[in-house]
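Researcher: Going back to the complex we discussed earlier. I've cleaned up the inputs and rechecked each line, so this should be the final set. Can you rerun the prediction on the complete assembly and write out the structure?
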Amino acid sequence: MLVALLLSVGPTVRPSDCQDTSAIDRGVRIGIIYRPGVRPGMVVLPGRGALLDSVHTILNRDLDYSDRFELITLPGGDSIRVSTGPAGGRGGGGAARGRTGGPQAAWGGLNYPLYQALGADFAVDVRLAADSMTVELHDITAGAVRRTLRAKLPPLTDVGFRMAVHRLSDQVVLAALGSAGIAATRVLFVKDGKVDRIDQDGADLQLVSSSSRQAMSPAWAPDGRHFAYMEFAEGHGQLFMQDMATGQRVPVATTGKALDFTPAFSPDGKTLAFSRATEEGTDLYTVNVRDNCCLQRLTVGRFSDNLSPAYSPDGQRIAFVSTRAGLPQIYVMAADGTDQQLFAPFDYGVTGSSNAPEWSPDGQSLAFHRDVAGTLQVFVLDVRTRTVRQLTSVGRNEDPTWAPDSRHLAFVSDRSGYRQLWIIDLETGRIRPLLQQSGARLPSWSPRLPPPETPASNP
Amino acid sequence: MKCLHLLVVAGLAVAAVAACGGGPKPATTPAPTPNADSIAAAERARQDSIAAAQAEADRRAREESERVARQRAADSAAAAAGTTTDVKNMLATMIHFDFDKSDLRSDDVGILDQKVAILQANPGLRIRLSGHCDERGSDEYNLALGNRRANKAKEYLVQHGVDAGRIETVSYGEERPLAQGHDESAWSQNRRDEVEILAGGDVLKKP
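Model: Rerun complete. Updated structure for the full complex:
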């Protein structure tokens, strides 16, 4: 059996450089040889039962979409287990788990040499009890369980089921590699003038803006429970803050009498920066959204426009777009509006318009899009060296937004013929579609989402 | 008088005889003599009928003039409405822009001059200028660009004597395209300023 396996599968092609090669879902990847320096192999052990199948599927996809592992699928499925393990024991849903004697006892019940031969560095084993889930992360090389994670699991039909599994898979990534995954996140975007949201794995698409008016520019609050967006009111643009769970919204004070747009939260969630268009042009303002007060003007453009603010993750600086040199380009200033300077270098008269900056959560990069030969492409600025590199080249690509891991970007692309949302991993260059619907734009990727607020416990 | 009667009777007798198969006899028809009384009566009757006709004619004339007056009123109302529609159409004429530009084109200046005249002829009129962009630029940047386009037209109107308080501006960026295509013909139609009447547009005078 093992020999057949070894003969039938070859080494996987591992994308190593970051290029926009439209490497859309290579499908099942099988790696049996562990190569140091490339992504560690991960196997999610199969189980039985409807619920376990769902958990297994979600977990597998999350770990795959994290782009941090070579996911190993077992060609024989359960048969590997059955052929190598003693009778009874694993994979039986809620059945009693036998850690029976024999050589397996020393390996925590797992045939480590076999999985090592298959190229796995980690194995994830999921077991379900009545309303909870236990996940064991095995370190194959060490031949031991590295971490045991437990979580309450809502019923399969519950709206929180998928998110609960996503949170667990993020913890698996954290336990394996030291930094959490991005499975428990969502993306807000605009479609047909309404704000929608979708889970990062493409599930659970929902309309979230309720009014019939045209909306634009959704932006997550750092708490992951609120978001701001702009809506066209009668001849104006008004900003709103909305509670994701309840759908309740409140207009942002001092907005709505002019054309206010592109809201962006400060990292402490206290301040909202935005653009205001008046007769003088467009300039940047901030307002205290915690106390609904204290409008402050940051730029005085007069003959130029200043717009699209983006806070640095430490809250000290704001990147923004300005037309002070003619075409819109990316600038940066202190959060109080002082010390304004060019951020992303450009060649005057040569470089095209640059727009839509967003600071990476780790503070090291700034993503934006730039006009290249009449179409838009996604660029990343290295904040420290102030060098830019072009990330995309296929079709029109715009409005990048960072995942909390600072290595994935969601953006809008028409590479498939119509504008939709895509996700690129900057480390591997892997690109996948997030949404297979035309007309989606202006995405905003959430922080890691907190568990739902539990109502006051009432036994 | 008597002889005339006789003559008439005789004449009748002759006629009777002749009708009964007698040979034709030349009958002498007496020339009628005017009867003063009947003339007067006829004259009276004629006068009466003339008066009646006159009254009828007067009534008709009155009715006709009323009808004409009504018609005229309706016509002038329609004409006024027609004027309002005409003026509204003139006012709604859009101006257009080059890609990523907010400068007024020379061929659009005449359109703006017409709007100045309309605003001056109708002091109660208030308008909103909305700036629009094509889909090629960045979605959010286009809000700023549309804002410049709307305010460029406002600036022109104000410079030519229109009170700034009568003109609002807004930008819709590329959010409300007029033409849905993805080529220059659609884009050039979408790079525009539109005019919307906010108040005082019920009846509009031609400049």
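Model: Worth noting: Chain B touches chain A at residues 100, 128, 130, 136-141, 143-145, 147-148, 151, 154, 168-172, 175-176 (CB under 8 Å).
Researcher: Good, that matches what I expected from the previous run.
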